[in-house]
Write a structure and sequence with these properties.
Elements lengths: L2 H5 L4 H11 L16 H11 L5 E6 L5 H12 L7 E4 L6 H12 L4 H8 L16 H8 L9 H15 L4 E5 L9 H12 L7 E6 L1 H10 L7 E6 L4 H14 L6 H11 L3 H17 L13 H14 L2 H13 L2 H10 L6 E3 H15 L20 H10 L9 E3 L4 E4 L2 H13 L17 H8 L5
Parallel strand pairs: 1-4, 1-5, 2-3, 3-4
Antiparallel strand pairs: 6-8, 7-8
Helix pairs in contact: 3-4, 5-8, 8-9, 9-10, 11-12, 11-13, 12-13, 12-20, 13-14, 14-19, 15-19, 16-17, 16-19
Length: 461
């Protein structure tokens, strides 16, 4: 039996396990073979962390794969005796709670084990530790309890103690740093500086957050820059997006025509999350198709592609879907086509005049006469806005009343406030049969560039 027929004949849960092996729409990638388009950045992280006292800060838009890069690098650097430590920051988080969360993973909660990790062997055995605790905190750990640091010095003492006992080369991933209150950034800054002063501490830290968080952290003490190598993650280039599609489909012996493969990468807008999500939903559409004739040639059919795209829109992040739907519902039907025009092309920031050109092109391709196909006169397809009307509506979509879904700089330039929302708008347009321009800044602007790539990589079978 072929891989294709065997895979699509599996029970539902087992088929899901096959998908989980090659697609990660809901969890971070943790191994290099599935981390596409980030080889240079992965090497940067590893080389930077090879230097004494150096840590890494990965920043960029949401959904570009910061956590996946951090986890993949951490798994390569972390010694094999333990897994890396992963913690997420929260809006009500403090330095004390952050360190406490790290300790929960690094130290045992069993009193018997707690006693063991605090012992110092006079014979020079395994229990010979360089870093130890003050009497009060030592007693707490021996009881199987975890102390919360009350000062920066406490935090340093506890981390040194815990990391030495955790593993030979411990790595901590601190994710979603932008969620932590800015008032706490100064404390994190001081912690990093004090840890750098500790001799022979093997600890490595990988922090992830948005760009503004990075500036906020370093603004307190410019000297903090020297302790971090910063990496800015941009959206993936289309060839790397295509490789995600290729690897996922190839693992199941599925083929795809160049046009459909090209469109998956286009509407994902360089966000790997959307590539994984679209592939997942298309493959589930194939699995659910009662007509199994497609198994003869193994190609993704148009109905699979369209069904998968529609489902992807429905299952996208609730935060994105709610923000988008609220903006559309609060304004009018015109709002949605304006949002599509704002997401047209590759630029994250667009001039209002260019957005209006996109709007006119969409209207020319999809406009209808009132009454045609039972459309009401208020339907967006039945009325083309003038440029002043269009500009006024764009301006309104920047207001809190409409969810502040767009942001403007006051000089005629606009962008999505939440950059990943732009990719979601492209998904919505695709589900409605609206075609947006696919140009991407990271590859030559040739329409057939990725088609040629996919043909070269056997997408055409």
């Amino acid at each position: 039996m072929s891989v294709l027929k065997e895979a699509f004949g599996l029970p539902l849960e087992e088929f899901g396990e096959r998908l989980n092996a090659v697609l990660s729409p809901a969890h971070a990638i943790k191994s290099p073979e599935f981390l596409q388009g980030r080889d240079t950045q992965l090497t940067e992280v590893r080389q930077s962390l090879a230097m004494k006292g150096r840590h890494v800060f990965i920043h960029g838009f949401r959904g570009v794969g910061k956590t996946s890069l951090a986890y993949t690098a951490a798994n390569l650097i972390q010694s094999p005796d333990k897994p890396p430590i992963y913690v997420q920051c929260s809006p009500d988080g403090t330095l004390a709670s952050l360190v406490y969360d790290i300790l929960k993973q690094a130290l045992p909660s069993d009193p018997l084990q707690g006693k063991t990790v605090t012992e110092t062997s006079k014979s020079g055995g395994v229990g010979l530790w360089k870093f130890n605790l003050s009497a009060g905190m030592r007693s707490t750990v021996e009881q199987g309890k975890l102390p919360k640091p009350e000062s920066i010095n406490d935090a340093v003492e506890l981390l040194c103690f815990a990391m030495e006992r955790h593993s030979k080369r411990p790595v901590i991933i601190i994710d979603e740093f932008d969620h932590m209150p800015k008032s706490e950034h100064i404390h994190v800054d001081l912690l990093i500086k004090k840890l750098a002063e500790v001799d022979n501490l093997p600890l490595k830290i990988i922090m992830c957050g948005i760009g503004e968080t990075l500036e906020s952290l370093f603004a307190a003490h410019m000297s903090t820059y020297r302790y971090f190598h910063t990496i800015k993650l941009d959206r993936l280039d289309l060839s790397s997006c295509g490789l995600i599609v290729l690897k996922a489909l190839d693992a199941l012996d599925v083929k795809i025509d160049p046009t459909s493969g090209w469109r998956i990468t286009r509407i994902s807008d360089g966000f790997p999350h959307f590539v994984h999500l679209l592939c997942e939903k298309i493959l589930w559409a194939m699995y659910n198709d009662p007509n199994k004739e497609w198994l003869e040639d193994g190609f993704v059919k148009l109905e699979h592609y369209r069904a998968g795209t529609a489902i992807a829109v429905q299952s996208a992040s609730e935060e994105l879907r709610k923000g988008y739907d609220d903006a559309v519902r609060k304004y009018s039907k015109n709002a949605e086509v304006i949002l599509w025009a704002a997401a047209d092309g590759h630029e994250l920031r667009r001039k209002s005049g260019d957005m209006y050109d996109s709007y006119r092109r969409i209207m020319q391709a999809n406009g209808r006469e009132p009454g045609a196909g039972n459309l009401s006169a208020s339907d967006w397809r039945c009325r083309t806005l003038t440029e002043p009307q269009f500009r006024a509506r764009v301006y309104n979509l920047c207001k809190d009343k409409y969810g502040h879904i767009l942001s403007g700089n006051g000089r005629g330039w606009y962008e999505y406030t939440e950059k990943m929302m732009r990719g979601y708008a492209r998904l919505k347009a695709e589900a409605e049969g609206i075609e947006l321009y696919p140009d991407h800044p990271l590859i030559p602007k040739r329409v057939n560039a990725l088609v040629e790539y996919m043909e070269r990589e056997r997408f055409a079978g």
